[in-house]
Write a structure and sequence with these properties.
The structure holds two protein chains of two kinds. Chain A contains no helices and eleven strands. In chain A, strands 2, 4, 5, 9, 10 and 11 form a six-stranded mixed β-sheet that branches. A five-stranded antiparallel β-sheet of chain A has the order 1-3-8-7-6, with no helix packed on it. By secondary structure, chain A is mostly beta strands. Chain B starts with a strand and ends with a strand. Chain B is 0% helix and 58% strand. Chain B is globular and about 40 Å long. In chain B, strands 2, 4, 5, 6, 9, 10 and 11 form a seven-stranded mixed β-sheet that branches. In chain B, strands 1-3-8-7 form a four-stranded antiparallel β-sheet, with no helix packed on it. The chains are: A mainly beta, B mainly beta. Chains A and B meet through strand 4, strand 5, strand 9 and strand 10 of A and strand 5, strand 9 and strand 10 of B.
């Protein structure tokens, strides 16, 4: 079974709006990572948040982590059509050995 | 040039055939991974290797084998391909920074 589950499965918004995706997981983690995948292509790392961190920012991305609720959220502010992609959370449960377990992803469509 | 390359990019094969997917990296990373992706699902780990002498099974290793020929090369073999192995296969690498770098993927169709 998959460790991470993203919510929603699909999200459709207009350019300029914010997009929020959520990830829930089941077991204790070392870190949680978010990746982006353009249609059928390889995944690209976006941001990593460690289990002792609560919030991180990178450009228009903001990630939060609540270990008590075993959940994370990815916020993309002022979205652009180029942000259209699938977004995956991945959890490292291997004590730092970087063995990741991926969720099923959220498909984001940003309309001009 | 891409840091992580996969060959072939697309492959059509028949049930029962043995095929090999290859992955090469120029990032100098010790850790390499093979994943498969099915429609509507995330990536599932097939095998991973932390160095040339260390190879480990992942979540779904049945029907697959791997070879770590060198630090830079990690191959995935399907000994006797079956239709439910039709999927998108990704190779990835990582160093101490924990970020994984993915190749462009191999689209495999087993008839």
């Amino acid at each position: 079974s998959q460790q991470g589950e993203e919510d929603p499965q699909a999200l459709s918004i207009q350019e300029g709006e914010n997009a929020t995706m959520n990830c829930s997981y089941k077991t204790s983690i070392n870190n949680l990572q978010w990746y982006r995948q353009n249609s059928g292509r390889g995944l690209v790392h976006l941001i990593l948040i460690r289990s002792n961190e609560r919030e991180k920012h990178s450009g228009r991305l903001r990630v939060t982590l609540d270990t008590s609720k075993k959940s994370s959220s990815l916020l993309i502010t002022a979205s652009r059509a180029a942000d259209t992609a699938s977004y995956f959370c991945a959890t490292d449960v291997s004590g730092g050995y970087n063995k990741l377990i991926f969720g099923a992803g959220t498909r984001l469509a940003v309309h001009p | 040039d891409a840091d992580v390359t996969q060959t072939p990019r697309n492959r059509i094969t028949k049930t029962g055939k043995r095929i090999m997917l290859e992955c090469s990296q120029t990032k100098g990373h010790d850790r390499m991974y093979w994943y498969r992706q099915d429609p509507g699902l995330g990536l599932r780990l097939i095998y991973y290797s932390f160095d040339v002498k260390d190879i480990n099974k992942g979540e779904i290793s049945d029907g697959y084998s791997v070879s770590r020929q060198a630090q830079a090369k990690f191959s995935l073999s399907l000994e006797s391909a079956i239709p439910n192995q039709t999927a998108l296969y990704f190779c990835a690498t990582s160093g101490l920074a924990e970020t994984q770098y993915f190749g462009p993927g191999t689209r495999l169709l087993v008839l």
